[in-house]
Amino acid sequence: MASVNPFNLSDSEEEAERRPNETVDTERSPSDGAPGPPPGNPFSPPADAEPPSLLLSSNRTSPSGEGISASAAATSAMAGSAETRVSVDVIAAQLLRDQYILTALEFHTELLEAGRELPRLRDYFSNPGNFERQSGTPPAKDQVLGPGGPLSKGGEKKNRAGSISTLDSLDFARYSDDGNRETDERVAVLEFELRKAKETIQALRANLTQAAESEVPSQERKNYKSSPEIQEPIRPLEKRALNFLVNEYLLKNEYKLSSITFSDENDDQDFELWDDVGLNIPKPPDLLQLYRSCGTPLPSPRDTADVSVGVDFVDLPGNCIQQTEVVQELEYQISLLNNEKQNLAEQIKKLQWCVLECMKLSPAFQQALLSFCRMCSDSRLGAEVSRIADSEESVMLMLGRCLPHIVPNVLLAKREELIPLILCTACLHPEPKERDQLLHILFNLIKRPDDEQRQMILTGCVAFARHVGPTRVEAELLPQCWEQINHKYPERRLLVAESCGALAPYLPKEIRSSLVLSMLQQMLAEDKADMVREAVVKSLGIIMGYIDDPDKYSQGFELMLLSLGDPSERVVNAVHQVFIPAFAAWTTELGTLHTSLIPSLLARIEKLHTQGEHGLDEHKLHVFLSALQSLIPPLFAVVLQNAPFTSRVKLHGDIPAIEVTRFPRPASPLQDVATIIGSREMLSALLQLYDHQLEHEGTTGWESLLWVVNQLLPQLIEIVGRINVTSSTCVHEFSRFFWRFCRTFGKIFTNTKVKPQFQEILRLSEENVDASAGNGILTKATVPIYATGVLTCYNQEEDRKLLVGFLEDVMTTLSLSHAPLDSLKASFVELGANPVYHELLLTVLWYGVVHTSALVRCTAARMFELLVKGVNETLVAQRVVPALITLSSDPEISVRISTIPAFGTIMETVTQKELLERVKMQLASFLEDPQYQDQHSLHMEIIRTFGRVGPNAEPRFRDEFVLPHLHKLALANNSQSVENKRIDIATQLFEAYSALSCCFISEEVMVNHFLPGLRCLRADMEQLSPEHEVILSSMIKECEIKVENRAMSDPQGSMSIASSLVGEDAKTKFLSKMGQLTTSGAMLANVFQRKK
């Protein structure tokens, strides 16, 4: 074993200088014993014991063949002159010689701490060969090794001898002071050493195999020896040793970066351990020492020996014997490998001989012979098959040549399987023309790709863009999109539109804001397919998210207005879901959301009012107002992010969760305030500080919120006051806008900033009852929008009370002011659409029913007509009808008359027989009670109601109640002496009969009531309006003909005047006459006035 010799006493220069002064008794035989230690030597064993050293006999250095005691030499060395100081190297040698390993280790540690490293101890403890597989046991203190073998001093063997464990297996706590160990501990140590030995043998076998594989053939070695100028190739073991020395040199000389690079390039070697080079290979001197001693050969450690000690493998104990066996085993393995190598060499020679035998055929004969193998290399495919690719580039070239021929022959349903192959080839192919052809194939792969196939192609395009970078995307992918922008199939154009959005993040910014934006703008304006324009809008939104050119703001604004005006609902939805949120995010970055974008939309809404001479353009109002509504979440985000408290936001600690109903449901994730802010945690923390700021600290210095309060809100309220209150569409749009606005900005903001501004304008107080006192605003749309858009935002008890009080005040004020009720009606219609507010509205109306003023009671009675249609029949029976019955017995006749439209609406909408009978009885009392015979306004209201509800009422109610009473009223009108009243009644009767003429009427009712009533009405019209008399005569004639025909064919059938017009001439005449007249009361009245 090539290891450091612990018995070599000449390793220290200090000891070499002292050696001439030391004497060693070489003639003393073992039988004479060793001299006793000097009295002052603390390192000697006790006087009554033999030195516990390992005694070796050697025939190499002792001419007499007698062994000497190594301890005697050490003792004589330490017994020199008293003045001479003992060398630390001598002490180390003594400790190692006597196998005081632990003491030597502690001694070595103390020297290291003192900065006096001893080479002997360093080399000894750094060499694992001194500790592994040492099964030999040093003799006990009473044992000596003589010619007769191990002897015991009392004739018996001591139990102190045990295995010398390796340092990494020592457990000092397990050894007692007397040295005794348990059997299981000994077994554990032996198992560990056995495992280490097996691992070492395995490593040796691996090194041996590597060395055998890389061994230079013998013939080449002869060439190297005969030609010294030819250097023999380096062996793996030599390479690893040199690598270790080079790395050590680099580290010692501060070439740390070079050392790191060198280690990375040799990652199969551990430069921290010399043992990784090879098993028990001694570490040579460093490169500097090798360079300095390159002229003189270094002595081999195996060839050096102490003057007084010889080494013989026969007498080596334990570890050396085991290593000798390992070496023998390895030599045997080497011999086996050499034999195997020779056998393989012989087989190679035989194969070469066979090849030479085959080569005896002439090349022409060989070619003719092989021609009988059916191979084809003349065609394109044959040439590709016969030419196997041998590199990545050749594979790409082959795929580029073959794919254009493969694609047309693959089924359409399976062509998406080729997408990865096409993209990979297009990415890596070196030829631009081939890449362009492959991408052209990709975009034309499927004739009409469905959603899944388009998604697959888009995924591939994005992967291609990530791989090749913006330049190639612009040069290679965009031209493919441009070519198909006008493709005849919408699916292909849809692919182009989607590609523009998907590739936006990977394009150069100049191309995004110029070419791609122009392509999408052209498609939005020209494409006729809704799904293509929808995809265009979404891609435009993505472009807006990545655009950074402020000059493109105006173009983006125009694109937003253009897409909002699209006739397709799905396109408009895409604008609100994607484009507007992205555009708002960009304007937020530019700082123009509340300074430019929102004011521009408000200006366009105001312009609609100024230009609307013939009425407001409701469609454009919807477009602009819906865009404003979609900008509410980003506006609120701007207010939060620019608030004075943003620097105090803390995301750690207990942050309360946001209530589910805190914000209106967003149209898309991009309109979610949490998404705009960044996270729900951040939004929750900001909302806490926002509410606290509004409630306790005010808005001083909060510019974005002050703009909302001082500029946006007043402008919106002013616009609301100018819209037409009778336009239910406008009222609904503004109500929805204010509802979302108030819910987004929160309850505290609504109560402290929004409501006060409305209340200041409405001024609901007793002194302002008179319309002339500046209360005209109550007749505007401000009332329904405030009631339905602001007061309904929150549904707590105090909020409901506030809404009820406001509606009661409006109803009272308008009634007492004799003002139009349109604003109150609009409020009831908007609120009545939601069943949640039915009870609340009934509460308001009951307040009017019991009011002391007859004007207020009349208003309440008329409001019931609006509410009946949406209320369920249970509420009608329990709340509505009792209130109407109460009003129908009111002392004021005007109040009683006001209930008639509501009763008629109940007859039109309710199906409960009991309820209908109660209403029928009440209406009958109005018609048959003598006190109402001269009530002209009551009769007018009843006829008007019959004409409105008759076509939709129950047929039995119409036949048994409506038509007979209309006949009576027509008959009574013939004897009316007051001409104005007669004209009014005739006008209403004509409108009622015109509406009822389209209903199916039984023959009996037709003969007994309908026709007689028409004749009575014709009698009035002969005197008052001959034009209407012509129409009535035609109606009567056709009804008579129908009755005669029905009597002959189907006596029990029913008929309608419209269906009884059998003759084309009669039908044309009737319709033309009806078309020439306007059946409104005002027009008929004018006709009658001209008659007079």
Brief overview:
The protein has 1092 residues and is mostly helical. It contains 47 helices and 4 strands. Helix 42 (955-973) packs antiparallel against helix 43.
Characterize the biggest β-sheet.
Answer: 2 strands, antiparallel
Distance between the termini: 146 Å
Low-confidence stretches: 1-83, 133-181, 298-316, 771-775, 1051-1071, 1073-1092
Globally, the shape reads elongated
Q: DSSP strand (E) fraction?
A: under 5%
Q: Whole-number average pLDDT?
A: 77
Alpha-beta classification: mainly alpha
Tally the beta strands: 4
Helix content range: 55-70%
Strand order of the largest sheet: 1-2
Radius of gyration, in Å, reads: 56 Å
Number of helices: 47
Q: What attributes characterize this protein structure?
A:
1092 residues; disordered C terminus; two-stranded antiparallel sheet; disordered N terminus; lipid transport; mainly alpha; two-stranded antiparallel ribbon
Describe this structure in words.
The structure is a single chain. Helix content is 62%, strand content 1%. It is mostly helical and 1092 residues long. A two-stranded antiparallel ribbon has the order 1-2. Strands 3-4 form a two-stranded antiparallel sheet. β1 and β2 form a beta hairpin. α36 runs antiparallel to α37 and α42 packs antiparallel against α43. It is elongated and about 155 Å long. The chain starts with 12 loop residues before the first helix and ends with a helix. The N terminus and C terminus are likely disordered.
